[in-house]
Amino acid sequence: MSDLRTQDAASGSSSGSRRRTWAELLAGRVERQLRGPGRGHRLQDSAVHLLRRHLNLDDLLLEVEGPACKTLCLNQLGDPEASANLSSSFIGSALRDQASRLGVPVAVLSSQTVASSIMQICSSNGEPTHRVLLNAEQRKKLSSVLEVAQYLLAHSMFSRFSFCQELREVQNFLLLEAVWHLHVQNIVSLQELLLESHADTQAIVAWLFRDLCLLCEQMEVSTQDTDIAQAMLSDFVQLFVLRGFQKSSDPRRNMEPERMAQLAIAVLRRMLIFALEALATGLQDESPVYKAVKCWFGMFCGHTFGRMMSTDCPKRFFSHTLTQVLTHKPVLKVSDAVRLQRDWSFAKTHPLLSSLYRRLFVMLSPEELIGHLEEVLGTHEVNWQHVLSCVSTLVICSPEAQQLVQDWVTRLLARAFESCDLDSMVTAFLVVRQAALEGPSVFPSYADWFQASFGSTRGFHSGSKKTLVFLFKFLSDLVPFEAPRYMQVHILYPPLVPSKYRSLLTDYVTLAKTRLADLKVSVENMGLYEDLSSAKDVTEPHSQAHQDVEKAIAVFEHTGKVPVAVMEASIFRRPYYMSHFLPALLTPRVLPRTPDSRAALIESLRRADKIPPSLYSTYCQACSSAAEKKPENAALGTKTEAICVEPLGLLAAALRELRTTMTDPTQYDVFSAQMAVVSERLSSALGLGEEDGSFEESQVQVNIFSPELEPQDQQVADLLLTSFCQNLIAANGFTPPDRQGPWAAHFVTSLCGRRLLPIVLTRLCQLLRHQGPGLSASHVLGLAALVIHLGECRPAVPEVHVASPAPVKSLPLPEFLSSLLTLRTAEASLFCLKFCTAAISYSLCKSSSQSKDILCSCLSPALMKKFQFILFRLLSEARGPLSQEDTAGPPWKLLCLPSADWQRAALCLWKQRTFQELLQEKEFHLTYRDWLQLELEIQPEFDSLSDMERWDFHQWAIHEHFLLKPSEAGGCDGDMQTACTVLVDVLIDFCQSLRSYNCLENSDLVLSCTGNRDIFSRLQEMAADLEQGPVAPQRCSPSQGHFLFRVFRRRLQALASGWDVAARLQRQQELLVYRWILLGLPPSILVGSPQNKQPATPDCTEFFHLVNSELRNFCHGSALTHDITVHFFRGLLNTCSQSRDPSLTANLILTTCQTECPIVVTSALLWWPRLEPELHTRWRRCFQGPLPQELQRLWEAQLFGKSCLSSDLASPPPGPAWVSAAALHFAIQQAEETRIKSQLEKLNCQSEELLVVLFFFSLMDLLSSHLTPHAVDFLKAVDICAEILRCLDKRKVSWLVLFQLTDTDGGLGQVLLRLAPDPYIRLLPFAFYSLLSYFDEDAFIREDAFLRVAVDMYLKLICLFVTGETSAVSALAGRSQELQGQGDPVGLIIKARHFLLQSIPRCPEKSFANMAELLATSGHCDPEVSAALLSRHQAVSDDDLYQEPHLF
């Protein structure tokens, strides 16, 4: 090259100023070289290499073509505006021409051109080089270039290899987003770009790691590019996981994929290490590194890997990641773990690390996680902090983990004591202690575990002296490192040791006590109620003693006896009892006049001689001295309070000053000035900021069932509420409410800040809902007025979210305040009457000069309705019509008198004209539905009304008041059916609300424990009136149906449909209430009354529809519950008693059951032993004849089922066959020991249909054993199914029809579909493959339809798994010992798949009929099985084409 430059310079000087062209330079070079073979080819290669590496192609094109080619300058390809007029085809043609002129391949030239343009785009921005995302302008240019590249690629004018080689030199300057666009738009794959363009894998890893970190940081910062960054990161992670963790079955796979896998794993590992090291060094929130780690951990989610066809790769990646986390920098020793593990609990683990654990747990089941932990701990050096924090997260986040961890620990202990394996012992103790740190709600305490494991002869240590020595040697080695709590557990709950080895325990106890003494912790000074399950620091004895005293007093209050712990301590732990407990209990004080619980406990201990006389005498003398000094101390206390400078003291002083302004509440300026002082002191007391004044989007949440406040917050609330009540009483002494000015509204407005309003509402909840009957009259008046003013603030405050065991609901502030008034007891009802009277009277008095609209806006409709309800209930005078309205003002003045008559005031308010005018407003109407809802709240055992008074009140309310009222006024228009319909609707809602609150499962228990169950008695009376009264024929027409079933239909239609858990549970709860109501009403409702036409057939359509559509789906197996079955047959007997021909009516009903609702028949067969005596007795007593034919047939079917199980000959089965099969099935099910094989041999002469139906019932039992393992024995169900299957195969009876049932089938198929719950029918594929090992090997050959059914069941099984419908099976199987390994849907799918892939090649041609149609609908579920089926079918078809035709 230096020679070339020298010659070029010489020739340039000789030729003057003329510069030779590139062609002349090449020509001169050629003349000076010697001729030889291959010289032209080498020269061409050198020229191409020089062009590619050292020249600017833009200038080259300009030099070759001259100025006319400027339109093809490469820098214009990335400029959308400049290249707008250049189509991709024109650019491709021009590149082809240039390549031919240069003598280089067009693909090479195109690749260089595109690469150059991309690099210009990436470097066109003057921003810092530490970027991975393009800006909008760069993205637009790159889109233009990639469009050209796609055209070139489509027309074979683009070389991926050359393109990658061009980018190799400038890879560090290439932006990651450009690489991503190249990959997703299929210009070049990431594998080609990284591997073919670069040989240094480490450099690629470093580059990708750097850019991925930058991408994570920028994704958290940039808002406009978030979607692109998210897509980029997701695609890269998916690619790395797919390439790095794809399992290959070919051992001779190419080296390039192997290298790509190594690269992918290296990048993922480096990102994880970066994140873990960042967490270890401590991260500041919102720092760039924190954002990057958070973003990277966010990729471990289902959204990232949801588009992958298989979960194998993500699963292997998650397992690999978990291994990396657990083994990252294993620098901590076991001693460090023992000493520090209490700081590694779930609450103390970094949120990012615990979130990573939780994301990893999603892909791996708890069993797999435990197995993985075992494997890692057994094969690697681990980071104990990560391992134990992982255990904490596991037991917190997985309900199944408690038992799994206990089983794991049991295995570890067994292994440890079997071979004296110290590693297993260490792991077991660390894991148990870590899990116990999370509290007893998720794992037993360490004390309970240690006592259960080593406190009995069943412990692993009790096998020999060797195991005992091993245990105590291990515990002794722990002593220098473990917390005092654990040594205290070992001492107080020592291992059970035989007497001859007692010295081992004694030596350990001595060592542990010595260590505790060094730590200044004494076992003797432990508290009586000290929690040994926690690993917290040991408290000082005197502090623990005060806690023990309070706990002992609480126990004494509850039991009336000295606590056992105190009595034991006085004997066995006398040093602590005498030195700490008694001094804390006998603290001198002023004794109350009436002995309290503390004094009673002291007296009980003294009588039991547990307090030394001298100590008790000293205590009494000290108490007497305290009583003598009380006045002096009280005076000092007053002075101290006066000069108190604490925030609460200053607030109290300001509120006292505010009270002095109430002498003239109209002086608003004086009041406002003092109110400003109160607001300032209030802010200081609560630490309020300037932002507390507005709510904006914040919410107010109050737990009405257990409202709790911090002590200081409660003191502030009490000061404010007391001040308002005192101010109101003071102001009323001077002027009435309508002339007091806005002081009250101003005061209440100051309570509505964001920080203060929840405190005030919580305190009001405590006072009104939980302490209402104990409030004084002045408190009732003040709080009632406060509620009215708070209601006026409704527009300025958000709704209140009522937090309770029921679902959270939002209420406007006035409605929330009204909901605090309960009616459950007599005391609560009287308080509600007082409060409502005071609140409404105050509102009417305050707004007497204002319009009705303003008055309505101040009053809560719920408050008005509760007042009407409780007034009607407690005061019978209010039930009659008003003789004359009272024109006087509201009774506010009466209420302010010292001896107010609340009932008189309530009647006065009721008769007041303004109040009666308000009741004309629709929103204030007490409707029939409102009355029922309020009445159901009453608890009869605490009601102020006697049973007879309550019955009188109900009769008046229903029949005299609401039944006759028009519907516009909240009544029933005189329609008894409407009254019953509303009552049923409200009753169901009430039961469902109690279920939400109390989580009760029995609706009968709901109404018997809580609520006015007399209301249900009223429903029974009204339903009987409808059945027997003269309105029954007109109201219960067949077209309308019974009112009860109309209510059920309407409510069921409103419920969410589907088979998800939430929808099913909600529907099941609803149906449980329906069943309870049906059982409480006359049974004739189920069957109906005989019609006038002949034959007299009762109409059971509605009950049959309810059974077939709803009740059938929530029974276990093929029968309804006993109670509903008996109720139906009682209704049948009642209907027969009203018929002219009872036997004919009974036969018609049961015949209809066989076709329309066959599950009623099978239910009768199941419960026949309990049903038959009542049927026989009642039929003989009422009709003096034999049972009807259909009932006799049920008896014969029952007899047939029993005879098949006896040693005698089987009696002939009655028809139809499915009835006999059901009877035999229930007989087998109820038999304790069955020899199913011998019993089936008795059926050799029976019809094939009976065997097939018997197999169907057995399949239902098999599914029940998975769904309800407590009700059905799994092993027995499997044996029965297997034997019936063998019998069917032996007799060559096809049973495949059971797995092809559809709604359009007639006859037997339709009956069978109505005999099983829909979830069971949907799970038939699961049952099919559960019996896989019992299939006949020749079934594929013998039955043409077997392959189609097997494939159909397999595809449906996959769909069930994908939709999550097999989750109930797998969850129950995991908890049942019998179902271990049997209820795993994944394992079943794998077995089924293997079975099909092995069987398809052996199937004859006829087996593939209609297979294409099946695969067209569901073949996508498993492409490999579909391909195998199509391939085999095609092969069979090809063989048929080449067979010689049979012409003769």
**Given the helix and strand composition, which structural class is it?**
mainly alpha
The average pLDDT score comes to 79
Number of strands: 3
Q: Total number of helical segments?
A: 73
Ends apart, CA distance between termini: 89 Å
Largest sheet: 3 strands, mixed
Q: What is the general shape?
A: globular
Neighbour order of strands in the largest sheet: 1-2-3
Determine the fraction of residues in helical runs and give it as a percent range: 55-70%
Characteristics:
single chain; 1448 residues; mainly alpha; 3-stranded mixed beta sheet; 1% strand; disordered N terminus; disordered C terminus
Describe this structure in words.
This protein is mainly α. 65% of the residues lie in helices and 1% in strands. It contains 73 helices and 3 strands. The chain has a 3-stranded mixed beta sheet. α6 (106-122) crosses α8 (160-168), α11 (201-221) packs antiparallel against α12 (226-244) and α35 crosses α38 (777-792). It is globular and about 125 Å long. The chain starts with a helix and ends in a 6-residue tail after the last helix.
